[in-house]
Design brief:
Blueprint: E1 2-5, H1 11-21, E2 25-28, E3 32-36, E4 47-50, E5 68-70, H2 73-81, E6 87-89, H3 94-104, E7 110-115, H4 120-128, E8 133-143, H5 149-156, E9 160-165, H6 168-176, E10 186-189, H7 192-195, E11 205-208, H8 214-219
Parallel strand pairs: 1-2, 1-9, 4-5, 4-7, 5-6, 7-8, 9-10, 10-11
Antiparallel strand pairs: 3-8
């Protein structure tokens, strides 16, 4: 069973390895190109807020003692591997992250280290809740112009049984490419929000994970 992996690196290879262990044949088709930017972050802050693991590579080592709130467990693992040891995961989506931050109410400015156009709604919510917020862009994500040839060939031949989508931005990028034969593919999305853009293509079905974790997303394959 061939499964399309649409997330960018570094997560794509880890997902492919997990699929292989489960008996699937992964096809890498990252739909976004990530470019990391110099992190123009203040030297001191109340907390860091991370909405995607893509931000981790841009964070300076000088902030490793700073409290960090992140949206999910995979990002928390990546942060800890990078040397951050005061990490709390919301274990869900942006709404869960908002609830975690407002429950903790740490003093000082909360800096959102995010991608381009990301974190805008969360920053507004936190400001309305009386939390000082500073939003900083630390990476960009650009849609790819064409699918990798092996993935496109498998799609054209009708060999792909399922496709995994981890973000709405990735889903939108894939839909814009208008790939062939999606009507025979099961689309598996990390959440209902990620699934929404996928309705721009015909699928055999669209499934959303019960919880926004990779384990729940993988469960959609069976």
């Amino acid at each position: 069973m061939k499964v399309l992996v649409t997330r960018p690196e570094p997560g794509a290879s880890a997902t492919a390895a997990r699929l292989t262990q489960m008996g699937f044949e992964p096809l890498l088709a990252p739909c976004l190109t990530i470019a990391h930017l110099p992190a123009r972050l203040p030297e001191s802050m109340g907390a860091l807020v991370i909405t995607s693991g893509q931000a981790v590579a841009s964070l300076p080592a000088s902030l490793r003692n700073t409290p960090v709130f992140c949206v999910g467990d995979a990002t928390a693992t990546r942060l800890r591997a990078a040397g951050f040891h005061r990490v709390e995961s919301a274990g869900g989506d942006a709404n869960d992250l908002y609830r975690l931050i407002t429950a903790r109410r740490l003093p000082g400015t909360h800096v959102l280290a995010v991608g381009e156009r990301q974190g805008l709604a969360l920053a507004r919510q936190l400001a309305q809740a009386g939390i000082a917020v500073l939003r900083r862009k630390v990476y960009t994500a650009r849609p790819i112009r064409a699918l990798p040839q092996p993935a496109l060939a498998a799609l054209t031949a009708g060999e792909v049984a399922a496709a995994l989508f981890y973000s709405a931005e990735t889903a939108r990028s894939f839909v814009r490419l208008n790939p062939p034969n999606t009507k025979n593919i099961r689309a598996c999305a990390l959440s209902l929000a990620v699934a929404q853009p996928l309705h721009g293509l015909p699928w055999s079905e669209i499934r959303a994970a019960l919880a926004p974790t990779e384990a729940d997303l993988m469960a959609c394959l069976t």
